[in-house]
Amino acid sequence: MKWAVVLCALVALSECLHKMPLIKGKSARETLQEKGMWEEYRKRFPYNPMAKFMQTGTDSMTNDADLAYYGVISIGTPPQSFKVVFDTGSANLWVPSIYCNSPACKNHATFNPKQSSTYKYTSQTMSIQYDTGGMTGWLGYDSVEVAGIYVSSQIFGMSRTEAPFMSYMLADGILGLAFPSISVSQATPVFDNMMKQGLVTQDLFSVYLSNEQPGSEVVFGGMDPNHYTGNINWIPLSSESYWQISMDSVTMNGNTVGCSQGCQAIVDTGTALIVAPISVLDTIQNIVGATGNQYGDSPVQCSDIGSMPDLTFNINGYPFTLPASAYVTKAYYGCRVGISATSSQLWILGDVFIRQYYTIFDRSNNYIGLAQAA
């Protein structure tokens, strides 16, 4: 496949971008609210957004009911298709298997290793802990197709059990795009194999998220200038495990509302909202007139959005501003601030932030690039 990279070098770069279209479907929250089941779900599966970043010997993830973006990949020969979340907050690829009897596996696509002529068995097991359950399974090797890129001998997980809340998730599995250091069982992540096998022209990928259908995509091996305007601001990583950066401060109306002494933030496509310390969310709620509820949500009047102040993240000397129309999420049931609280001092800049800023994840230089989304 390296000949394809050489060919790309001889033609316009835009013609060789490997684009993975992302579908923005209904989130689990929206589906459950329509069915009148949201309050019951929230009681059974309380949301802890920091769970996936607290390593305890096994990978950790959380039940994010607001995730809505997924893409379709295939595994095996002939190909078996799966909807996956492209998650920069984890490092493993895993999908359900035919050997899983959990309810979550009964309403999702499952991988059948017996139907793939290129599958290679291993005896390695894997376990991913969730704050309200877990996923257990084993590892195998097979060919994986992502955005027209064919990765050979990719190690991936197949679930044997899955946490109950996953029955309500739209995607079948997860494709992790973080660093190998956090990978369960030291399994090589998909993008690392793309780089090792010479399948991408540049050792980076970029993410564009839109509220519109279609339009959202992950670009492997490059960036699409049609998705951003102005300059790209490059920010060095402060940690090379997650995509973690240093922030200077967070302001509203010119006043600091958080991160006054500097703080750390993880840029994560696998977290739907922005996650901030509890005290910061309290301050923001007071400023915008939100009323917190028992589920950690911050409802606001949709008619007030036009009068709410901007929220600015000051990072590496650059201001990255979100108008209220970006940090307030709208749905048929009303409006709410797209920020969740955590007891940690670590911030997560999730999809609410990424929709406003085209994000480039550069592995060759260990930088994140941010540019105003077009």
Please describe what this structure looks like.
- The structure is a single chain.
- The chain has 374 residues and is mainly beta.
- The protein has 2 domains: 2-40 and 51-208, Acid Proteases (Cathepsin D, subunit A, domain 1), CATH 2.40.70.10; 224-373, Acid Proteases (Cathepsin D, subunit A, domain 1, Beta Barrel), CATH 2.40.70.
- 14% of the residues lie in helices and 41% in strands.
- The chain contains 8 helices and 28 strands.
- It has helices at residues 2-9, 28-34, 38-44, 103-106, 190-196, 278-288, 324-327, 351-354, and strands spanning 18-21, 23-24, 59-61, 69-75, 80-87, 93-96, 120-130, 133-146, 149-162, 173-176, 204-208, 217-220, 228-236, 239-240, 243-247, 249-252, 255-258, 263-267, 274-277, 299-300, 311-315, 318-322, 328-331, 334-337, 339-342, 347-349, 357-362, 367-373.
- The strands form 5 sheets. A 6-stranded antiparallel sheet has the order 1-12-11-27-28-13, with no helix packed on it. It has a 6-stranded mixed barrel with strand order 4-5-10-6-9-8.
- Strand 7 and strand 8 (133-146) form a beta hairpin.
- The longest helix has 11 residues, at 278-288.
- The protein is globular and about 60 Å long.
- The chain starts with a helix and ends with a strand.
- Mean pLDDT is 90; it is low at 1-7 and 9-14.
